[in-house]
Amino acid sequence: MFAAKRIFTGIVQRTGLQQQHSLARSNQPSAVRWLSSLQEQGLDTPFDNMNLSKMTNEELANPTNIPGWELVHNPPRTLPRGALVGTVVSDKMQKTVNVAVDRYRIVPKIRKRVKYTRKFMAHDEAEVASPGDVVMITPCHRISKHKHFMLREIVRPKGQL
């Protein structure tokens, strides 16, 4: 790879193609290179007619109104990293809930879906969760020997559809 890079740069220097290949050798993200090439050509960019100072908070809260949203390659996650959704099984401990997380796996040999359940202990500071609630837990620093998740939110209280 390094040899190919040296050969490529040598060809560029000898033939004078440096201006033509400046976009290919840039360390900038592709969206930034695309915008800079539009500006060099004198074309309008998607941001020219946007005035963020005149937008309301509601408009700014909608991510599709952000300039260049369609250029984003990785949209934001719907769940936080490592978050799990499960059902509260027990709340008999102080500031701790036991959450059962169901996972499914298809066994190729029998072509059926098998359910795996694992229980995690999660820290519930305000003690708001009750058995039967569907909750979201996120990983955190180890609080005790078995507790390394925190209760993030109650997705659906018990009895609601």
The share of residues in extended strands comes to 25-35%
The residue fraction in helices comes out at 10-25%
Count of alpha and pi helical runs? 3
Sheet of most strands: 5 strands, mixed, barrel
Mean pLDDT: 78
- What are the segments in which pLDDT stays under 50 over at least 5 consecutive residues? 4-8, 15-24
What is the H/E string?
HHHEEEEE
Radius of gyration: 26 Å
Distance between the termini: 57 Å
Going across the major beta sheet, what is the strand order? 1-2-3-5-4
Can you describe what's shown?
With 161 residues, the chain is an alpha+beta fold. The chain is built from three helices and five strands. The chain has helices at 2-15, 30-41, 57-61; strands at 84-93, 96-107, 112-123, 134-139, 147-156. It has a five-stranded mixed barrel. The longest helix is centred in the N-terminal third of the chain and has 14 residues, at 2-15. It is elongated, with a radius of gyration of 26 Å. The chain starts with a helix and ends in a 5-residue tail after the last strand. The model is unreliable at 4-8 and 15-24 (pLDDT under 50).
